[in-house]
Amino acid sequence: MSALSTVRRNAILLVILLAANLALMSSSSRNAHGATRFESAVIGLSSPFVAVAELTGGSFRAMMRGAYGIVYSQATNERLRSDLESLSAEAVWLREAERENQRLRLLLGMREAIAPRSVAAQVVTSRLDEQTRIYVVDRGEDDEVAPNLPVVAWGGAVGRVIVADAGHAKVQLLTDANSGVAAVVQRSRVQGIVVGRAKAGLDMLYVPKYSDVMHGDRVVTSGLDGIFPRGFGIGRVSSITEAADGSQTIHLEPELDFRVLEEVMIVLEAPAGDEAGR
Question: Strand 133-137 vs strand 118-128: parallel, antiparallel, or unpaired?
């Protein structure tokens, strides 16, 4: 009995080992996709969780890419806006520099042509009120500037120096209520005195009633006042009024726009023979 029991136990143990071996072999066998049944079972159980993870991760990655794109676009826009502002400012500066160069070339040409003994000056500030018309320029006694020297710009008379210190001078404009300059109608050679009327412009006085003066005539400096060389533009006739004394008052539109002048020329010495404007 004891020997039979031993044989039976061995047989049962052998059957168990064979069954375990078969189960292991079955679980190790691969399907058509190369995965074992065990692996397939694990994959099958975990696939829903993987799918959810992939969906969540993909959405998160897409969201992060979108957020990065927005931040990058904003940074790019800011950089482009800054570059555009810089370019715009540079363009404005270049236009201003070109305009200044053009004005300075005109003044240089005028100096060479009609006022070789002169000095260019920049308008520092101005006083343009009801009666007073004054410029302050950045040239003074250090540049040989003195009172009563004439001040001109391209195409016309500006005024005269009334005060000068070492580095600055005060210029009384033609339109100042206290100014006066000897003048002549360029076409007919009718003479008179042009005085300032501040905001009202200029008037030419002491013109005989039947003098040959017409609308649009150009009036220039005559040189008879001992300050301005002859021939610098003053203005054009805009209207004519008969005065009570039988003379005419010739109203002039100033040749220069004194509100926008930035550079002027101070004539230190009249040209030889006073050839300006002949």
Answer: antiparallel
Other C-beta atoms closer than 10 Å to the C-beta of 229 total 23
Distance set, CA 171 to CA 27, 188, 225 (Å): 111, 30, 17
Tokens, residue 78: 């800011």
Per-residue confidence band for 94, with pLDDT thresholds at 50, 70 and 90: low
For 158, phi then psi, to 5°, come to -105, -50
Q: Given pLDDT bands bounded at 50, 70 and 90, which one contains residue 189?
A: very high
Q: pLDDT digit string (tens) for 23-54? A: 555 555 454 455 555 555 545 555 555 454 45
Residues near 64 by beta carbon (within 8 Å), at least 6 away in sequence: none
Interior CA angle at 59 toward 54 and 61, to 5°?
90
Inform me whether the pLDDT recorded for 229 exceeds 90.
Answer: no
Instruction: Give the amino acid at 145.
Output: V
- Give the DSSP letter of residue 145: -
State how far the Cα of 236 lies from the Cα of 203, in Å rounded to an integer.
10
How far out from the chain centre does Cα 179 lie? 36
- Whether 146 has a pLDDT exceeding 70, the answer reads yes
**262 CB neighbour count, 10 Å cutoff:** 11
